[in-house]
Amino acid sequence: MEQNSHNNTNKHTHHLVPFKVYVVTLIALLILTVLTVGVSYIDFGKGNIYVSMGIATIKASLVMLFFMGLRYDNNLNRAVILSSFGGLAIFFFYAAADSWTREKPKLVEVKAAAVAISLDELKKLELGSAELASKGKEIYNVNCASCHGTEGKGDGIAAAALNPHPRNFHGALSDWKNGASAKAIYVTLANGIPGTGMASYQTLPVADRWALVHYVRTFLSEKPASASGDAKYAAAIKADGIGGSGPAVKATIPIDFAIDRMTK
Amino acid sequence: MSESHAADHAHHFESVEHEFDAGKLGMWLFLVTEIMLFGGLFVGYGIFNYLYPEMFREAHHELNKVMGAFNTIVLLVSSLTMALAIAFIQRNDVKKSKLMLIITFLCACTFLVVKYFEYSAKIHHGLLPGHFFTNTDLQSANAALFFSFYFVMTGIHGLHVLIGMACIAWIYWRMNRGDFNAHKFGAVEFVGLYWHIVDLIWIFLFPLLYLVV
Question: Does the reported pTM lie above 0.80?
Answer without folding.
Answer: no
